[in-house]
Amino acid sequence: MQFIDTIHRFIYRSSRTKLIAAVLAISFVKTGVWYIPNFDGWKSMRLDPFHNPFSDPTAHYLFWNWLGPFLGWRLRIQNDQLFLYFHVLFSLAFTATYIWLAFKTFEEREARTALILFLALPVSATAYFWIGMDSITLALMMFILAAHKWPSISFLLGIALGMQHAEQGAVAFAAVLFALVWSQFVRPQESYSVPWALASLLGVIAGRIVLMLVFHHYGVIVNSGRPYYLSRYGGVYASMFWYHFQYVLWSVLGVGWIAVARFVERGRAAVPMLAALCLMMLMLPVVGDETRVLGIVTFPLLAVYLLLNPEFLQSLSSRFVSWVFGLWLLIPLPWAWGGRPLVSIFPYNIAYLLHRLFGWFSVPADQGMWPFLN
After folding, report:
1. Radius of gyration of the chain (CA)
2. What is the CB-side half-sphere exposure of residue 354 using CA atoms within 13 A?
3. Is 108 exposed, middle or buried (0-12, 13-18, 19+ CB in 10 A)?
4. Going along 244-372, which residue ranges are E strands?
5. CB under 8 Å to 153, separation ≥6 — which residues?
6. Does residue 35 contact residue 350 with C-beta atoms inside 8 Å?
7. Contact predicate 326/126, CB 8 Å
8. What are phi and psi of 344, to 5 degrees?
9. Mean pLDDT of the chain
10. What burial class does residue 209 get, using C-beta atoms within 10 Å of its C-beta: 0-12 exposed, 13-18 middle, 19+ buried?
11. How far is residue 127's CA from residue 93's CA, in Å, rounded to a whole number?
12. 100 neighbors 114 (Cβ within 8 angstroms)
């Protein structure tokens, strides 16, 4: 097919700079840029990270995402927009670190393949679709992956992750550890080691303990956070998943499911990764923002076994990768929130810009939920 041939030439024969710039521009159009709806509440923490500002007990879960506001307080970022831009830097660091690591580690062909697979996963868009706490979480996960040769550094980064989002960090690296240990008895994963995964997980746990000690020292009154929130709304989330499970499952990995299917063709060697992935999917009935949460917690596992696995990348034909890219181009961004499909925010970005420049379009005063209510 001429369409696939054109894509193949674009991916593997255009200059590296042109390829990276073009695919990132396409990704921006497919995704758009906005901030997570609860950012307005979370940003208040930066004024005093040693006092819980949330009177609503169901909002206490936000306080456990403590590292970002603490850094904002420490850097004396008083302006709301500057605090948002501060998180944009972490989103950019997440993407830039992955691209740097891929082209630094692999031969040119495999690095370009890794770039396409990364874009095919909705998690690559998460850091921009909902800028906020996830920006820091994903950046820290990416830094831990980049430091896989130095478990001690991964442990320290794990502490930071535990102080930012311990639940997601613990689930993510427990899954990686589970899969890597199992792989030792089937087909060892050469690039990432069990000691590294264990150090990362222990770091996350240590970070949570450190955070609990900080709260105790400063007399911060906060409930269990997400377990408390789940006790109140768990039934609602289960219902959301049940009535929309087909789209929800697709939205977690999007076109990336095709890469997972190709990995499964490896037979017994794929079982550890697949088992860990399936176990994490059991979280879907108990989360409200399904694509976001599952995309984040599955990212380290998929990075270890697919995105940053040289053996797997070498096994993929250029034509297969071209088809993945072509489907990613044609299929809209899959995103589920409460089981409800959301669309690209890019049209809202354009509408907002035209509103600011010429007064066109109607933009509400409270813009946080604007793109998600239409």
Report:
1. 20
2. 9
3. exposed
4. 336-337, 340-341
5. 147
6. no
7. no
8. -60, 145
9. 95
10. middle
11. 10
12. no
* Helical spans, DSSP H, in the chain: 2-13, 16-31, 39-42, 67-74, 80-105, 108-120, 123-129, 133-146, 151-183, 194-217, 226-253, 256-264, 271-281, 290-302, 310-315, 318-330, 346-358
* DSSP designation for 174: H
Question: Tokens for 49?
Answer: 């990270």
The conformation of residue 283, written as its DSSP 8-state character, comes to T
Which pTM value belongs to this model?
0.96
Instruction: Give the rounded distance of the alpha carbon of 320 from its chain centre.
Output: 24
Q: What is the DSSP letter of 45?
A: G
In three-state secondary structure terms, 337 is strand
CA distance 55 to 59: 8
User: DSSP secondary-structure letter at 331?
Assistant: S
- Alpha helix stretches (DSSP H) within 106-225: 108-120, 123-129, 133-146, 151-183, 194-217
Q: What angle do CA 6, 127, 148 make, to 5 degrees?
A: 90
Using one digit for the tens of pLDDT, what is the confidence trace for 60-99?
Answer: 999 999 999 999 999 999 899 999 999 999 999 999 999 9
Please enumerate, as own/partner, the contacts of 177-185 that have beta carbons within 8 Å and a separation of 24 or more: 177/201, 178/272, 178/275, 178/276, 178/279, 179/272, 179/273, 179/275, 179/276, 179/301, 179/304, 179/305, 180/272, 180/304, 182/271, 182/272, 182/275, 183/269, 183/272, 183/273
Q: Is the pLDDT of residue 19 over 80?
A: yes
